[in-house]
């Protein structure tokens, strides 16, 4: 058993760290305050070829896997971006490139992968719905056959990055949930040209005001009589669950990587303050009440990292990774929250000041415990699917 990261992942860490060294904590604070996409970082990542890691070499990418994407996300997050980095690797390299490389047709790959590799185009993913919530199989957005085309109607919620996306991976029902047997049948994923659909008045969106992660807007999305050719299907009609699992597991792994990096930066902020701040004649970090919570966070970060890398490695090697992805997401998100909370407590009242990054780190960390899947559902999966306990529904 070898716990050494492969050279490909180590090279990614060095390359991303080099880019990140050009941007300090104040930069990320300004991006969040101004609700602005970090264009400069995105441009540097694109120029260095770091957005095309998961694109096969024949399409101009790096030919790497999810492990390298996870390391890139973790490194970027740990540099100071925290939750803001998740969208930079989840939306386009994750949702777009990784999924197309596995499930796209030859035509879809040739048309999109080279542009995804360079960052020329971006993608987003539309699954969640207002009424279905976490029950993804109960979505009602429906694609009806009409000759050689499909006509789609429905609503989506919490869809991030629509404003920048050239293409959307849109999850629909082609068999109503009540009629599908098994329940996983009847899902179909489409590739939607977002600018064209918006210009035609068939797709619209409305941003949702939110407490954090404001570098990228999240939206309500409305689909009205959107006509799509059969060639826009990603994967197979009615068999979209295969595509879905290859989206959701990497999403959880990449969000775990972002949370892990967020935990690292929060820990660093807390430790630095504990070293420097003196009260009663000594640094406050000399007090066990301050030191021990920070030390506990460090232990949890290292444990979460082991499962994160195992989950990504399993996906890349074609092994089942659902359990590992769920555990990685659960533990990394908890570590991020505990790290941010410990940093907040270490700063005392000054944590409440927006002159410090602690409030941003706390807001970014909190979302990880409820999105894109709640802790309760992750625990329910482990209880029923791993431990074999009775289902509650």
Keywords:
four-stranded antiparallel beta sheet; globular; alpha+beta; flavoprotein; AcylCoA_DH/ox_N_sf; four-stranded mixed beta sheet; 393 residues; Acyl-CoA_Oxase/DH_mid-dom; oxidoreductase activity; 10 strands; 50% helix; EC 1.-.-.-
The coarse silhouette is: globular
Helix/strand class:
alpha+beta
Secondary-structure element sequence?
Answer: HHHHHHEEEEEHEEEHEEHHHH
Strand residue percentage: 5-15%
Helix content: 40-55%
Low-confidence stretches: none
Please tell me the overall pLDDT: 96
Q: How far from one another are the termini?
A: 39 Å
Spatial ordering of strands, largest sheet: 1-4-5-8
Tell me about the biggest sheet?
Answer: 4 strands, mixed
Topology, number of strands = 10
Rg value: 21 Å
Number of helices: 12
Enzyme class: oxidoreductase
Domain Acyl-CoA dehydrogenase/oxidase N-terminal: 7-120
GO molecular function: oxidoreductase activity
Protein name: Acyl-CoA dehydrogenase family protein
Describe the structure.
The protein has twelve helices and ten strands. The protein has helices at residues 7-20, 25-33, 39-47, 66-81, 86-103, 106-118, 194-199, 241-276, 288-316, 322-347, 358-367, 375-386, and strands at residues 123-126, 142-146, 149-160, 167-173, 187-193, 203-207, 218-229, 233-234, 278-279, 282-283. With 393 residues, the chain is α+β, with helices and mostly antiparallel strands.
């Amino acid at each position: 058993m070898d716990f050494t990261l492969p050279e490909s992942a180590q090279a990614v860490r060095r390359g991303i760290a080099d880019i990140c060294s050009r941007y300090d904590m104040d930069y990320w604070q300004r991006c969040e305050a101004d609700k602005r996409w970090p264009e400069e970082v995105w441009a540097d990542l694109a120029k260095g070829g770091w957005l095309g890691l998961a694109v096969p070499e024949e399409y101009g990418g790096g030919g790497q896997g999810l492990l390298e994407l996870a390391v890139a996300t973790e490194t970027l997050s740990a540099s100071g971006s925290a939750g803001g980095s998740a969208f930079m690797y989840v939306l386009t390299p994750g949702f777009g490139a990784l999924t197309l490389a596995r499930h796209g047709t030859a035509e879809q790959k040739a048309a999109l992968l080279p542009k995804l590799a360079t960052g020329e185009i971006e993608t987003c993913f539309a699954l969640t719905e207002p009424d279905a919530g976490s029950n993804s199989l109960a979505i009602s957005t429906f694609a009806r056959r009409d000759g050689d085309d499909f006509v789609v109607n429905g609503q989506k919620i919490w869809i991030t990055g629509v404003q920048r996306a050239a293409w959307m991976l849109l999850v629909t029902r082609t068999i109503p949930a009540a009629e599908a047997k098994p329940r996983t049948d009847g899902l179909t994923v489409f590739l939607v040209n977002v600018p064209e659909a918006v210009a035609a008045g068939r797709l619209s969106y409305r941003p949702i005001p939110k407490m954090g992660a404001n570098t990228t807007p999240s939206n309500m999305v409305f689909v009205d009589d959107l006509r799509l050719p059969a060639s826009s299907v990603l994967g197979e009609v009615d068999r979209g669950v295969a595509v879905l699992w290859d989206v959701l597991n990497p999403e959880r792994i990449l969000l775990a990587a972002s949370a892990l990096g967020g935990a690292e930066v929060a820990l660093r902020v807390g430790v630095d303050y504990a070293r420097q701040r003196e009260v009663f004649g000594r640094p406050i970090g000399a007090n066990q009440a301050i030191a021990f919570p920070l030390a506990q966070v460090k232990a949890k970060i290292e444990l979460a990292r082991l499962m994160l890398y195992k989950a990504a490695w399993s996906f890349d090697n074609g092994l089942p990774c659902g359990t590992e992805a769920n555990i990685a997401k659960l533990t990394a998100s908890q570590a991020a929250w505990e790290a941010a909370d410990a940093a907040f407590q270490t700063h005392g009242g000054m944590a409440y000041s927006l002159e410090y990054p602690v409030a941003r780190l706390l807001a970014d960390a909190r979302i990880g415990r409820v999105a894109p899947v709640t802790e309760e559902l992750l625990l329910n999966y482990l209880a029923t699917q791993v431990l074999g306990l009775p289902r509650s529904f």
